[in-house]
Structures are given as structure tokens and as C-alpha cells.
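User: Okay, second chain of the day. Same drill as before: sequence in, C-alpha cells out.
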Amino acid sequence: MPRDASELSRRLARDAEAVCRHYLSNGRRQGRYWTVGDVRNAPGRSMFVRLSGPDAGPGAAGHWTDAASAEHGDLLDVIRENCGFIDSRDVAEEARRFLSLPRPEPRQAPTPVRTPVPVGSPEAARRLIAMSQPIRRTLVETYLCNRGIEAVHDGDALRYHPRCYYRPDDGSPAQRRPAMIAAVTDLGGKITGAHRTWLAPDGFGKAPVDTPRRAMGHLLGHGVRFGVANDVMAAGEGIETMLSLRRVMPKLPAVAALSANHLSALALPPTLRRLYVARDDDADGQRAAERLCDRARAVGVEAHELVPMRDDFNADLRDRGAAGLSAHLRAQLVPGDRERFVAELASGRG
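Assistant: Same drill. C-alpha cells below.
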């Protein structure tokens, strides 16, 4: 029975075509190779997997290269990226499942003792995020797709917890419900807090509770980040609002500050030269956007407000579709940023 990664990799390589047909089903065989768009199973032909060859070394079976991204690896890497795993133990377990191998005998280890931390503290937030899992193929993807957000670019800040504690305000017993977990970080990437959105059991909407959204930890000045900000970025209140912008401007770094008050106090990167503030269409949203723009201009940052057609940009996305939202935003951007950030989209609601 294989007990290490190299042996698992060799076992997978001996049946490379079957592995590709299972995990890279959008590709096809071409001679001695399997071709597909990328390691995450996108359609296309830039990635090729060698289906035959020696067990190790140059030209080994199972080795792959993506000509577009220069990524490369073996079939364990295919499983890791395709399934969204982070822990190598999960990768090995999935490989054993595919190969129909028995699980290794568990090693006896002492039960770790966790020191209690204050409820709602940054450390409690970090522990919650560590206990969560990637969002791929979870209720978080279902929830976001139902909000018109069909793809999340640079979405490492989002996680999924299938049984996150929800404590009702009336003091009744805690409940365990599925939740979208968002990491709140400072400018250096350190986790300072977490935001929880409890979801309906089928993922089609938020949970039927009084307060389906709650934050914990230190939030002031920080936010949920999508992409790495350099000279240009966008900021707004809600996670869904900023993901809606990223749906049509996937290369524009964005930060969700989680509330109007926190938006007005958001810390700005020292390299920032231009800021877009995606405000909600209400009095609190307008005041927060004005305050943040004033703060940005005071330190020499060019600032512009992005105004939605309806209550917020997620409502715009659901009502007008990606093409309609793209056209609306394009008119509000600095000319050079239109070509830099706005994706080419077909007309209509797609």
C-alpha cells in the first residue's frame, strides 16, 4: 500500500488517461497526450498531460505543463487544484479513493489541547477560518451563483463552514448552520477578523434567522480583499457588492469593508494612486463614500464614486446582467481603466 506522495504519484501515472478522463473531463486525448484548458479543467488546449513514459525523471507519465501559465506538476497536483484542496492529506485521501486503495493506519497522536480564546476576538476569527474549507463545490458557490456571481476571481478570502454556530439574540440554544466565512485582513495580509453569512440549507439565499450576517474580530480600517491592490483599487460595503464588480472587472483589486461606517474608515495602501468607491444607493452609503473620497484626496489619491442603477451593484447585476452592469460601470471609469479592467462581455444578460 502506498504511504507517500511519490508512490501515489507513480500509481496514478500508471493509469494517467483514466485520471485525466475523471478530473480533466473537458479535455481529450491527442496522441500520447491529454490536452485541456488548465489544471482546473477549463476547456481549451494549453495544458498537456503525458499519458505514457517512464515512472520518473524527464518525460515521465503523468507529468503536465500549461503553456499559457507556465504551471507544471504531476497528477497529485491535478487532484489538488481540481478539487480545491489545501491540505496534502486531503489530496492523498482523494488519490487513494480514486485508486481504490485502503486508508493508511492512523498514527496514535496526543489529542491537542486548545487554549480558550475570547469570543469574537481576532484569534477566534483565525480559528474559525482555519476550520473552514475552500468554497469550490459548496453551498457558497450555490449562494453566489444565485446572486448572479458565477465565478469568484482571487477568492481565497472566502471559505465555507458546513456547521457554523449561530447564537440567536434571544438567548435560545446555539444552532449549527452552513455559512460563508470571509477573512478580514489588514494591509499586510494579517487576519484581524471574520465575517459570517449563514446560508439556507439548499444555498438559495441566506438562512431564515434574524441576523444572518455577523462579524467578529478587529474590523476598523480592514476588509475582505479580492486581488492585491497596487496603484488602483475599488472599495465598497458588501461582499456581494464587490464580487459583482469583480464579475465584470476581474482584474480590478477590490475590498469589502462590510459596513458604511467601516468603509469611511478603510485604510488605504501606500502605493495607491486612484480609488473607486462603489457606494450603495442610500444616505449612509453616500456619506461613507464621500468621507472615504475626502480622506483619499487629502493624501493625494485620485478618488471617484461608482453609483449603482438600483440599491447596490449586486441588484444591478441581477437585474441587468453582466453586460448591462459592465456598460454602466465603463461610463464611470477613467478612460485608461476601461481597457485595463473591464472584461469583454457579449451583449444581453450573460
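The chain has three domains: 5-99, 122-216, 224-341.

User: Thanks, on to the next one.
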